[in-house]
Specification:
It is a single chain. Helix content is 33%, strand content 16%. It is of the alpha/beta class. It folds into two domains: 227 residues, Rossmann fold (3-Layer(aba) Sandwich), CATH 3.40.50.150; 62 residues, Orthogonal Bundle (Helicase, Ruva Protein, domain 3).
Length: 313
């Protein structure tokens, strides 16, 4: 999603909401247009609506609005939109992506939590009968109740909730087959990190759970300057394509326990997390041909599934 991150209330010290605003008070629109503070009416939709409806980005919600409409085409191509798709957009913002999606999909569900954005978001989609607005938190919205059921997800999320929101849609939207998400660069790296790779610290719970159900690919870097206000973090577009069902609850619990004490051996970490007894885990690891002192970061995603089965979970 590229119009704001007000669909979630939750945040962390690492989220965009904790970053200071850019010193620049008049950002470029990416098309040569000036900010909503400049003289005259901006032509870029985001800047125009920000000015028209007197909207100020909310730092508490980590809002960074897209002001370069060229990125819409990039997202559209990655999402491979068709006129039969039902899209879930997380974070409608002022509607620049919402109207883009509505013109290309059968239906669009837009989740937004910031009530101040009602007027600009309604203004963006007023001409589309195929848009449903949901004014709620993206981490608590009843995904299973969305009708028609989403087949694709588009999101722009702050660091503190990006992985949680994406994993939740993977788990609770079995009809969804493709995701395109704007996330902080480190989040994209974590989702796509390979096991036993060159960056083992990036490989963790989000990596395993996402890759058990999807093929994950960091599609491209996004410049900070395409957002207003300019964030002090780098962003990427990450693409996920479903390859199978989401991990079952027992596997999710095992993965969480495995990385809960990632500096310790896997058997010890799972024992400390209360998932299984240490010797039971060591026996299961031996049956899989793995070292008894192996750490979680050395197991491929599918090996966690095999370990859960070996443990009878």
């Amino acid at each position: 999603m590229v119009t704001g991150v007000g669909a979630v209330r939750h945040r962390s010290p690492g989220s965009w909401s904790s970053e200071p605003r850019s010193r620049s008070s008049e950002p470029s629109s990416g098309t040569g247009k000036r900010s909503p503070d400049a003289q005259g009416a901006p032509n870029q939709p985001t800047l125009r609506r920000l000015r028209q409806f007197d909207v100020r980005p909310d730092r508490e919600l980590g809002q960074n609005f897209l002001i370069d409409s060229n990125i819409l085409g990039v997202i559209g191509r990655l999402a491979a939109l068709s006129d039969t798709d039902v899209v879930l957009e997380i974070g409608g913002g002022v509607g620049v992506l919402s109207e883009y999606l509505a013109a290309r999909a059968a239906h669009v569900h837009v989740v937004e939590i910031d009530e101040r954005l009602r007027d600009p978001l309604n203004d963006a989609v007023v001409g589309f009968a195929n848009v449903t607005l949901h004014w709620c938190d993206a981490l608590t919205v009843d995904l299973a109740a969305l009708r028609p059921a989403p087949t694709k997800v588009v999101a722009n999320l702050p660091y503190g909730v990006a992985a949680a929101a994406l994993l939740r849609t993977i788990e609770e939207l079995p009809t969804a087959t493709r995701w395109v998400a704007m996330v902080q660069r480190e989040v994209g790296q974590r989702l796509a990190a390979g096991w036993a790779g060159s960056n083992p610290r990036a490989y963790g719970v989000p990596s395993v759970l996402a890759q058990l159900a999807c093929r994950v690919h960091v599609a491209r870097a996004i410049p900070r300057t395409v957002f207003y206000p300019v964030p002090n973090v780098d962003s990427v577009l990450v693409e996920l394509t479903r390859t199978g069902p989401a991990a079952r609850p027992a596997v999710r619990a095992l993965v969480a326990g495995a990385f809960a004490h990632r500096r310790k051996a896997l058997a010890r970490s799972l024992a400390l997390a209360g998932v299984a007894e240490r010797e039971q885990v060591r026996t299961a690891l031996a049956s899989m041909g793995l070292p008894l002192d192996v750490r979680a970061e050395r197991l491929a995603p599918q090996e966690f599934v095999a370990l859960a089965e070996a443990l009878g979970l």
